[in-house]
Amino acid sequence: MLDITDKEFESIQKITYSRIGVNLRPTKKPLILSRLRKRLEDLNFSTFTPYIALLEKSGSEELEIFINAVTTNETYFFRHTGQFNYLYEQILPSLIAKDQKKVTVWSGASSTGEEPYSLAIALIEFAKKNRGFTFELSASDINTEVLEEAKEGIYDPRSLKEVPQSLVDKYFTKQSTKHGERFAISSEVKSRVEFFQHNLLTPSYKRNVDIIFLRNVLIYFDRQVKENVVNLLEPCLVKGGHFFISYSENLNDIKSSLELIGHGIFIKK
Ligand SMILES: C[S@@+](CC[C@H](N)C(=O)[O-])C[C@H]1O[C@@H](n2cnc3c(N)ncnc32)[C@H](O)[C@@H]1O
């Protein structure tokens, strides 16, 4: 049976940390084993040592497959609903009041698309009630597999548990598949999100973004990586722009120009 030695696990930890900043704790050993077992079998490797050598080869194409396997992509529509309410009821009206008719939004760890599509629904709803309001919405992740799933936009009912029925009726189509019931996001919503691959450890060319969602990813980083990631995103945000993290994260231990104004909500000073 496939196992992983302490030394092999240390090498996996080092690769994960240097490539995507994720700090794999020793308790993640069984998870790594279960996620990579099939891949090692397909490659006919009976131990992790040759697999690690493959990952360490320069320009290794295996890295993408490895990153796709080791990232955690749990998400659902309207996760932390209060933050979407704050966006809809406070931020967007305050921008309109300042005569700003267009907002630019970026979901920086978008996983399978539930977060950016929730943003798209909120922004479309707002635009329907506020003539002249427009938005640009982009979404990125390091994991190429989840980006493809996001572009497909077909979801398990579990992902929709926080979506009000009126919005389900309006923006989803129910499908019967061999895997059971699925919900396809409407083309009206789908067409509003531009997905792209981006590693949060690298700088972004984006500027003048009004709102960044970066939820449930900082939790995988240590203090230093968290500070680097936040500092790399700060120049992308306009002064007075909003930055969202999840309810289980904080920026208490890092230096940044972001000031806490609500539950997981910051403003750039
Ligand atoms: C748990 S999901 C969060 C999804 C969504 N933001 C939410 O809160 O529901 C975390 C995502 O962060 C992505 N991720 C991890 N490290 C990353 C990195 N260095 N750059 C970009 N995305 C990364 C993972 O691939 C994963 O899809």
Give an account of the 3D structure.
With 269 residues, the protein is α/β, with parallel strands linked by helices. It folds into 2 domains: 6-70, Chemotaxis Receptor Methyltransferase Cher, domain 1 (Orthogonal Bundle); 81-268, 3-Layer(aba) Sandwich (Rossmann fold). The protein has 10 helices and 10 strands. Helix 6 links the parallel strand 1 (102-107) and strand 2 (134-141). Helix 1 (6-20) packs parallel to helix 3 (48-56). The longest helix is centred in the N-terminal third of the chain and has 17 residues, at 81-97. It is globular. The N and C termini lie far apart (55 Å). Bound molecules: S-adenosylmethionine (SAM). S-adenosylmethionine binds at residues 20-22, 71-75, 79, 109, 111, 115, 141-143, 146, 199-201, 215-217, 220, 246.
Task: State the main characteristics.
269 residues; alpha/beta; Chemotaxis Receptor Methyltransferase Cher, domain 1; Rossmann fold; 10 helices; binds S-adenosylmethionine
In short:
The chain is α/β, with parallel strands linked by helices and 269 residues long.
Layout: helices, strands, pairs:
Layout: H1 6-20, H2 29-42, H3 48-56, H4 62-70, H5 81-97, E1 102-107, H6 114-129, E2 134-141, H7 144-152, E3 154-155, H8 165-171, E4 172-177, E5 180-185, H9 187-190, E6 193-197, E7 209-213, H10 223-233, E8 237-244, E9 258-262, E10 265-268
Parallel strand pairs: 1-2, 1-7, 2-6, 7-8
Antiparallel strand pairs: 3-5, 4-5, 8-10, 9-10
S-adenosylmethionine (SAM) binds next to loops.
